[in-house]
Amino acid sequence: MEVLITMIVFGTFGGIIYMFISTRHKERMALINQGINPLESKKSGGKLLSRLTLKIGLMLAGVGAGITMGSILHKMHLMYEEPAYFSMILLFGGLSLLFYYNKIKKEEQDEPIDFDDII
Questions:
Q1: 94 Cβ contact list (under 8 Å, min separation 6)
Q2: Within a 13 Å sphere around the CA of 86, how many CA atoms are in the beta-carbon half?
Q3: What pLDDT score does 118 carry?
Q4: Residue 41: its pLDDT value, please?
Q5: Cα 24–117–34 angle (5° rounding)?
Q6: Are 108 and 91 in contact (CB under 8 A)?
Q7: What is the CB neighbour count within 10 angstroms for residue 93?
Q8: Which of 59, 46, 47 is closest to 111 using CA atoms?
Q9: Among 40, 51, 82, 116, which is most exposed with the fewest C-beta within 10 angstroms?
Q10: Nearest to 91 by CA among 62, 71, 112, 116
């Protein structure tokens, strides 16, 4: 049974990696067919990557703060262990995503629209 589970886990990871590489290849080939250099189109993708990194970082920081707060609430006997951890992780994770949303919304309002990127 353990061997079967191990094979399924590695097969899943292999499938995900295969799908990622094949999708990336198809996207690049489509850009080349349209006459666009894939290396130049990466420049606009850098902003998306930095936003994704910010989102993941804030989410992990929120989850970490939630675990810490859940532990404090449990140690002070203010809440039972499971609800303390679960509720604080969700609360702080959600707050971090709201913070991210407000930051991105403010960034988008501050920067002018570049119509050359749209066309």
A1: 62
A2: 5
A3: 46
A4: 60
A5: 45
A6: no
A7: 19
A8: 47
A9: 116
A10: 62
Both tokens of 90, joined, read 């969700």
> Any idea which residue has 């039972």 for tokens?
80
Q: Report the alpha-carbon distance of residue 63 to residue 90 in Å, rounded.
A: 7
**How far is residue 47's CA from residue 108's CA, in Å, rounded to a whole number?**
12
Hey, what amino acid is at 23?
T
Q: What is the dihedral of CA 90, 94, 95, 98, to 10 degrees?
A: 180
Residue (of 75, 97, 95) closest to 84 by Cα position: 75
CA 108, chain centre distance (Å): 19
Residue 106 in 3-state DSSP? helix
Q: Which of 59, 66, 63 is nearest to 97 (CA)?
A: 59
User: What pTM did the predictor assign?
Assistant: 0.55
Gyration radius (Cα) of the chain, Å: 21
